[in-house]
Design a protein that fits this description.
With about 280 residues, the protein is an alpha+beta fold. It has helices at about 5-60, 65-90, 95-110, 110-125, 170, 200-210, 245-265; strands at about 135-140, 145-150, 155, 165, 175-180, 185-195, 225-230, 235-245. The chain has 3 domains: about 10-110, Helix Hairpins, CATH 1.10.287; about 130-180, SH3 type barrels (Roll); about 185-265, Alpha-Beta Plaits, CATH 3.30.70. Helix content is about 55%, strand content about 20%. A hairpin with a 3-residue loop joins β2 (about 145-150) and β3.
């Protein structure tokens, strides 16, 4: 190796050493800044989570929704902190942002149906059209007591003790009847009587049965209304209000006692019938 080559190597080494010396303070400063940002950011994330958790509890938000939203907030803040830290170290974050966006798009397309149920679950838990313990009915004909409200599904227990799991997307996008939210229920019991029956007397008999029922509320006032001239009978509607827990007891007692009272008064309750006329030539 001649002197010229040795001089070139020495020059490159001196240049590298001088560059390292000039960049060392910047690197040390960047690393220390990144560590400080990470520590302060982690502390701020913990404080934000505590404040948000307190706000959720004050609003009496569902426990499952609280946990889910706290996890979302935690992941979002940590990703943001990671981007800030690597930016402080001099790393270009455009590639990270592009990767996160592409991954989000792919997951969204793959889980389109699940995301619909997820959005429905969020709406149900936030707007609270029903809660656990309510008896509801959907326009698809499914009825039952709400057993659980998850992020993706709502679970109902039917009066026959059957478990029904309904996707939240279906529940949130259709009409729901909540029978227990108002604290009371009003029955609409239809009773048909014969066409030759005295309707005023029939209404008085049915009203006496209502007044003697221990579960019937006086306010709002009960009603007995003639509603229809049917094919085989004159139909009356018995409308009485009671508490949710006594609704089925009252409904059963009204059916039994109304039939007994009408039988004693000699007022017939006809069943559907058809007259057949036979002609002989």
């Amino acid at each position: 190796m001649n002197d010229l080559e040795l001089n070139n190597i020495q020059q490159h080494w001196d240049s590298l050493l001088s560059s390292a010396i000039s960049w060392t303070p910047r690197i040390i400063t960047a690393v220390i800044s990144a560590i400080l940002i990470y520590l302060i950011g982690s502390w701020m994330i913990r404080m934000i989570k505590k404040l948000v958790a307190k706000a959720f509890k004050k609003r009496n938000m569902e426990a499952s929704l609280q946990l889910f939203l706290l996890n979302i907030i935690n992941w979002g803040l940590n990703i943001l902190l990671f981007i800030v830290v690597v930016t402080q170290l001099g790393v270009q974050t455009s590639a990270f942002v592009a990767m996160i966006g592409a991954a989000g798009l792919a997951v969204g397309l793959a889980l389109q149906g699940s995301l619909t149920n997820f959005a429905g679950g969020i709406l149900i838990l936030l707007l609270k059209p029903f809660k656990i313990g309510d008896f509801i009915s959907t326009n698809s004909g499914v009825s039952g007591t709400v057993e659980a409200i998850d992020i993706f599904h709502t679970k109902l227990i039917t009066p026959q003790n059957q478990l029904i799991v309904i996707p939240n997307g279906v529940v949130s996008n259709n009409s729901i009847t909540n029978f227990t939210q108002l604290g009371s229920r009003r029955t609409s019991l239809d009773i048909g009587v014969a066409y030759d029956a005295d309707l005023k007397q029939t209404k008085e008999i049915l009203m006496r049965v209502i007044n003697n029922n221990q579960y019937a509320f006086t306010e709002p006032a009960p009603q007995v209304m003639v509603t229809e001239l049917g094919d085989s009978a004159v139909n009356l509607s018995v409308r009485v209000t009671t508490s949710n827990e006594n609704f089925w007891k009252m409904n059963e007692e009204l059916i039994i006692n109304c039939k007994e009272a009408l039988d004693k008064a000699g007022i017939g309750i006809p069943f559907p019938q058809r007259d057949i006329h036979v002609y002989n030539k």
